[in-house]
Design brief:
It contains eight helices and four strands; from the N terminus they run βαβαββαααααα. With 212 residues, the chain is α+β, with helices and mostly antiparallel strands. It has two domains: 100 residues, Glutaredoxin, CATH 3.40.30.10; 105 residues, Up-down Bundle (Glutathione S-transferase Yfyf (Class Pi), Chain A, domain 2). The longest helix has 31 residues.
């Protein structure tokens, strides 16, 4: 059993998608970031950076004490190792998955997060910042679009944690992008969105938000 400390954000969706794809038994523990629940001592005990998601695995592979993991990229890698799934079928494929996962957590997520902040949430409009992050979002969309040319998924023909990590961050309308300008990305995004596990994960996330 895995406890998932979660809120329906792009980073939260990544981990819930993995759990649904792998069929791992889990329980969602909502962490309402709008109410500041990420600062509660019991959450900080497993996620010291006061960010969700975080997990507690009560049945780790070594059969020892429960293991807690924070940071969405680390959680995806932990779960890939635990299950032997979605991490690349051989050492070379695994390196490819790792580099694209690091690209997402180090670039795609932070830059698009700044896009969200300055275009939607900042108390005052800062034209330079808005232009900066809209432009960077377009650049990163282009990187992913080129990578997906001739590939079914981010690293080739296998669906991996790299896809799970990138998918929830692609929100064209909210990020001021015309997805039609990125045809490979559009095709990939539609394919991922149609996966039954992804549909379940996003529906569960919506239900969590509606109960708040």
């Amino acid at each position: 059993m895995i406890d998932l400390h979660y809120w329906p954000t792009p980073n939260g969706h990544k981990v819930l998608i993995f759990l649904e794809e792998a069929g791992l038994e889990h329980t969602i523990h909502p962490v309402n970031i709008g109410n500041g629940e990420q600062f509660r001592p019991e959450f900080l005990a497993i996620s010291p950076n006061n960010r969700m998601p975080a997990i507690v695995d009560h049945a780790p592979r070594d059969e020892g004490a429960p293991i807690s993991v924070f940071e969405s990229g680390a959680i995806l890698l932990y779960l890939a190792h635990k299950t032997g799934e979605f991490g690349g079928r051989d050492p070379r494929a695994h390196i490819d998955v790792l580099q694209w996962l690091m690209w997402q957590v180090g670039g795609l997520g932070p830059m698009l997060g700044q896009n969200h902040h300055f275009t939607r949430y900042a108390p005052e409009k800062v034209p330079y910042a808005i232009d900066r992050y809209l432009s960077e979002t377009a650049r990163l969309y282009g990187v992913l679009d080129r990578q997906l040319a001739g590939r079914s998924f981010v690293t080739g023909e296998d669906y991996t944690v790299a896809d799970m990590a990138c998918f929830p961050w692609i929100l064209p309308e909210a990020q001021g992008q015309d997805i039609a300008q990125f045809p490979n990305l559009a095709r990939w995004h539609a394919d991922i969105a149609a996966r039954p596990a992804v549909i379940r994960a996003l529906a569960r996330g919506k239900a969590v938000a509606e109960r708040a």
